[in-house]
Amino acid sequence: MLFGKSRRAAPPPKIWRARNMPKRLLIVAHTPSQNLARLRDAVLSGARAPEIEDVETEARSPFETRPEHVLAAQAVILGTPENLGYMSGALKDFFDRCYYPLLEKTEGLPYALFIRAGSDGAGTRRAVESITTGLRWRSVHKPLICRGPWREEFVDEVHELGMLMAAGLDAGIF
C-alpha cells in the first residue's frame, strides 16, 4: 500500500480491432518439392476448415513474403525442409530481409513451425527458434518435425497443425 491505497498493476493495453474484423493467419512455407507442396496445401486446408469462422489465411513463399505481410498477421506458421541440417535458404532469406523491419514490432506474435526432415530436424529447429527468439515471437505449438522417409501421415499431421493454429486464433486463445 502506498498512501493508504493499494497499487494494482495496470491492465495490459488492448489492441483495437473492428468488430467482426477477421484475424489473419500467415503461412510462410518453402515448397521446392511435390511433397512439400502437399504439406503446405494441407496446413492451408486445415486452417481454412469450415469450423473456423473469423480467420483469413494466406500462404506465401518465403521469397515473396515481405514485412508488411507479417505485420498484418496475428499469427504465423512457418514451413521448411531440412537442408544440410538447417532451414531452407528461402526461409533464411525471408528472415534476412524481414528481421529488422519486424524487430520490436511483432513481439509476442504467435507462431508454429513444421519441418520436413530427412534426418532428425534438430539443427533446423534450433536455427528457426534462434531467430524467432530474437524477434520475441511466441511458439504456441511444439515444432512438428516430419522425420525420415515420406509417410502419408505427415499430411494429416500438418493439416491438424493448421486447424489448431486457426482455431486458437479464432477463439482468441492467442
| β-strand amount | 15-25%
Class of secondary structure makeup: alpha/beta
Radius of gyration: 18 Å
Average pLDDT rating: 91
The dominant shape is globular
The name CATH uses for the topology is: Rossmann fold
CATH architecture: 3-Layer(aba) Sandwich
Domain module tally = 1
Unreliable stretches: 1-18
Gap between N and C termini: 33 Å
The beta-strand count equals 6
SSE string, helices as H and strands as E = EHEHEHEHEEH
CATH class: Alpha Beta
What's the story with the biggest beta sheet?
6 strands, parallel
Number of helices: 5
Structure explained in plain terms:
The structure is a single chain. This protein is α/β, with parallel strands linked by helices and 174 residues long. It has a single domain (23-170), classed as Flavodoxin domain (Rossmann fold, 3-Layer(aba) Sandwich), CATH 3.40.50.360. The protein has helices at 34-47, 67-71, 89-102, 122-135, 153-170, and strands at 23-29, 55-60, 75-81, 110-117, 138-139, 144-147. Helix 1 packs parallel to helix 5.
